[in-house]
Specification:
Blueprint lengths: L11 H36 L3 H7 L8 H27 L6
Helix pairs in contact: 1-3
Length: 98
């Protein structure tokens, strides 16, 4: 299902500002994704296990850091999924200046 969003502004400059804000937000998402991937990589190096193995095969009892590390690691994984989904949705959005 496709949904159309209309934003009316009073000038071409205002329209450009809206588009620039969208691009700036997308860049913030990219930076957040990179930061979250670094956090996940740190856990993977610390425990010698990939994040995909963690979320499919492990529990907090399997980690020497216990519950806190498990919660942080899986939380970072869920955060990454959400950030990636949001960026994908914005990247798929089509817009034109008329």
């Amino acid at each position: 299902m496709s949904l159309q969003l209309t934003i009316e502004v009073e000038s071409r400059q205002a329209a450009q500002s809206v588009l620039q804000a969208l691009e700036a937000y997308k860049e913030q998402l990219r930076q957040s994704i990179a930061r979250t991937q670094r956090h996940l990589q740190a856990f993977e190096i610390r425990y010698g296990v990939s994040t995909s193995v963690l979320v499919t095969e492990m529990t907090a009892d399997d980690l020497s850091g216990g519950d806190l590390d498990y919660i942080e690691w899986t939380g970072e994984f869920e955060l990454l999924k959400g950030l990636q989904q949001e960026l994908q949705e914005l990247d798929r959005a089509r817009y034109q200046l008329q």
